[in-house]
Specification:
This protein has 431 residues and is α/β, with parallel strands linked by helices. The chain has three domains: 201 residues, BirA Bifunctional Protein, domain 2, CATH 3.30.930.10; 101 residues, no CATH class; 86 residues, 3-Layer(aba) Sandwich (Rossmann fold), CATH 3.40.50. Helix content is 37%, strand content 21%. It contains 16 helices and 19 strands. The strands form four sheets. Strands 1-5-6-12-11-10-7-9-8 form a nine-stranded mixed sheet, with helices on both faces. A five-stranded mixed sheet has the order 15-14-16-17-18, with helices on both faces. It has a three-stranded antiparallel sheet with strand order 2-4-3. Helix 3 packs across helix 4, helix 5 crosses helix 11 and helix 7 runs antiparallel to helix 8.
Amino acid sequence: MASRPSTRVVADLPLTPPTGMRDHLPEAARVRASLASRLLGLFQRYGYERVMTPAFEYADVLERGLELDRRDVLRFVEPETGEVALLRPDITPQIARIVATRLSDRPAPWRLCYHGTMLRRRRGRARKSRALSQAGVECVGFGGLGADLEVIGLAAEACALVGLPGVRVELGQVGLGRLLLAEVPEAARAPVAEALASKDAHALEARLREAKVPARQRRRVLGLVDLYGERPVLGRARRRYKDAESRAALDELARVWDGLAERGLEPQLGVDLGELRGHAYYTGVSFALLAEGPGEPLGGGGRYDRLLGRFGRPAPATGFGLDVGHVLWALEAAGRPWRPSRPLRLAELGAPAELVAGLRDAGVEVAALPESVGDRALGFARAWGYDGVLGAGELRRASDGKRRALEDGVGGVLALRDWLAEAHAPKGAKG
């Protein structure tokens, strides 16, 4: 006779997820899947083909594509090969690998989209691992203004599609930032970028002095602190940085701004030339999507023309990613929580098998209940979010137990869809 597990052993198990990780129960999982599906559908209408990438990669692949701090990633030794592997902290380098290898025989441009989970370790006060659900696009082999406008415009359209039409699109120019940070010792660049992003001129100057950056170079870096706001910022930046490389970078950003304005996006546009964090592989115009709620960008992206070259196939590229969790958070903050389009959902107790099969063929979700449930069927239906209980010749509404006789088989049930739903019709952005 098999022994039962001891209560003590079960009690000692860690029955909650690791720090920074979350379960998503049926309702939340349905919401997330619906939002991601809606985003992917939009991306595909623009010609972006979906790819799915592995949950982990060999470290040398991702480290080739990213300028990684070892403290930011989760690594392990892959048992079969003994190689060091990383749980993916970013999907873009994986897509660069795919384009350079598996899709290298196809003509440019490569338009690819994805949805997946990334794992990152957050440092600072949080110091915890986080699983980020991200949906995004990568446009590879298409350089210049046209690709930048397509990708940034698509990001804004994606936000509007799911119920966030006024998202702020904050443009940056990593080319200018990299040019100025090249004057800072490499070990000091990350803290300098943090101080720049916080707009704290005193902290920034202290960081630059600690790094022994000469006075002239200090002034050039400090000049970025107040370069954020609206279109006139670009004029101020041109007067401040007059060398040819800086002018070229600012001219590129001005063309993107003007192109987006022609598409009707100017009311949403902003610029921040001091935001350089998290742009390890970007080379030109970048952008962040901002809304009330999360306290962090909903997503962002930019141009990364050198990444593909690290995988042996140089090509221009640009793209963006949206954090699904942050988008849902912003929708809640805006009073427009995402409501997925849901099929009719019924619990079944004693209904004819032919009727049940026909309903499933028609797209209705039907869960069979054991006979022992008996009078508790309505309670089950309410607890699990079913619309009603289907029995022999009748349909009971889960919300209030009201009954309707059934005479017309599948058609009769489908005709009662509105009656079933009228007692609990929530408001919100619909998927």
